[in-house]
Amino acid sequence: MTLERRCRPAAKSFGSRGTMTNQTAAQRVSVIGLGAMGAALAKALLAGGHEVTVWNRTAARAEPLVADGAKIAADSAEAMAAGDLVILCLLDDAAVREHLEPAAAHVRGKVVVNLTTTTPEQARSLGRWAETEQVALIDGGIMAVPEMIGGPAAFVLYSGATAGFERFRPVLESFGRAEFVGEDLGAAAMYDVSILGGMYAMFAAFRQGGAMVRSTGGSAARLAELMGPFLQAMAAMLEGYAPGIDNPADYVQPQSDEFTAAAIDLIDKSAAESGNPTELYAVLRGGLTGL
Ligand code: FVH
After folding, report:
1. CA end-to-end span of the chain, whole Å?
2. Cα separation of 91 and 89, whole Å?
3. Cβ(157) – ligand 1 distance below 6 Å
4. How many A from CA of 134 to the centre of ligand 1?
5. Based on C-alpha coordinates, what's the Rg of the chain?
């Protein structure tokens, strides 16, 4: 790489509040894994002006990125050796360990960001390996689909090596807003699955609600029009609800157990009357009330 290229400012990055900031210096970044998400990450890095080396088990998936200026490595170890920042985006924890552990000598002293979805304990376990090998490990949880990467709505949760995160924050902001959530390597994965839990609860209730309104001649499309804005307004109340969860001693019930249980009973009965399953509401009653 020429000095001119190393010093060339990268094109764009997002500040800590999601706004565009000054241009950042180009960095040598390796991306291991070019599935739908890894390819989107590599593309965003190239668009940001970084020097990107890529590797994928199925080499053909690297071709469009090579056409866009990425260098292709012969194997994962060679790819990791090429970058000052190494990013892994593979299927699962097993695939990450399969490639990272034998390449320890190539990542020693470097910052490695694992954007593969794992459990918090898998992230911590990899952290124990990284500590032994003197690798600054950061775990990440991507809160976006590939098409959103580099766009204003994308954000990525990070936890682990704070200094490594701060050093490469401008590069990581190529993907979207970078949210550091703690030094515990399991923290990003725990926020990730908690947010996904909220998303799945919403989709489950919408799917079931769609079936229920259809029994009265309605449609899921009409329900979406009505439910979407209402849920957005409800989502705005989460912050007010948080202090009582953070400090259970000060917990103030937003609605009484009796009120909530009665509301859920109404939904449950309406589902049963329309011939729909009621298991979802039994779970909600258990999660929201002591009744
Ligand atoms: N796609 C999404 O919307 C979500 C958003 C949230 C975060 N996830 C996580 O990102 C990881 C990768 O997801 P992906 O969408 O890129 O997944 P695929 O398109 O299925 O690509 C999988 C890549 O992993 C490679 N791979 C699998 N096993 C191995 C292995 N043993 N050795 C080397 N590479 C392996 C696979 O290679 P190939 O099949 O092309 O040869 C792909 O590159 C994931 O953790 C999501 O949960 C994405």
Report:
1. 65
2. 7
3. no
4. 26
5. 23
CA torsion 130-100-175-127 (nearest 10°) is: -20
Question: Cα of 220 to ligand 1 centre, how many Å?
Answer: 32
Query: 24 in ligand 1 pocket by Cβ < 6 Å?
Result: no
Q: Please write the tens of the pLDDT for every residue from 137-189.
A: 999 999 999 999 999 999 999 999 999 999 999 999 999 999 999 999 999 99
pTM: 0.89
**HEC-encoded secondary structure of 70-105:** CEECCCHHHHHHHCCEEEECCCCHHHHHHHHHHHHH
Q: Kindly report the number of other CB atoms within 10 A of residue 107's CB atom.
A: 24
- Residue with the smallest CA separation from ligand 1 atom 13 is 37
Burial class (CB in 10 A: 0-12, 13-18, 19+), 202: middle
Strand locations in 79-203 (E)? 85-88, 111-114, 136-143, 155-160, 177-182
**Ligand 1 mutation target, pool 30, 41, 90, most atoms within 8 A of CB:** 90
Q: CA angle, corner 192, sides to 179 and 104, nearest 5?
A: 80
CA of 18 to the centre of ligand 1 (A): 26
CA distances from 29 to 49, 70, 135, 204 (A): 11, 10, 15, 39
Distance (Å) from CA 223 to ligand 1 centroid: 34
**Residue 260 CA, ligand 1 centroid: distance in Å:** 41
Q: Which helix (H) or strand (E) element contains residue 168? A: helix 162-172
Residue 128 and residue 184 in contact, taking contact as beta carbons nearer than 8 Å = no
Pull the structure tokens for residue 156.
């990525």
The whole-number pLDDT of residue 17 equals: 43
120-132 helix and 187-214 helix, angle to the nearest 10 degrees: 160
- C-beta separation of 20 from 12 below 8 A: yes
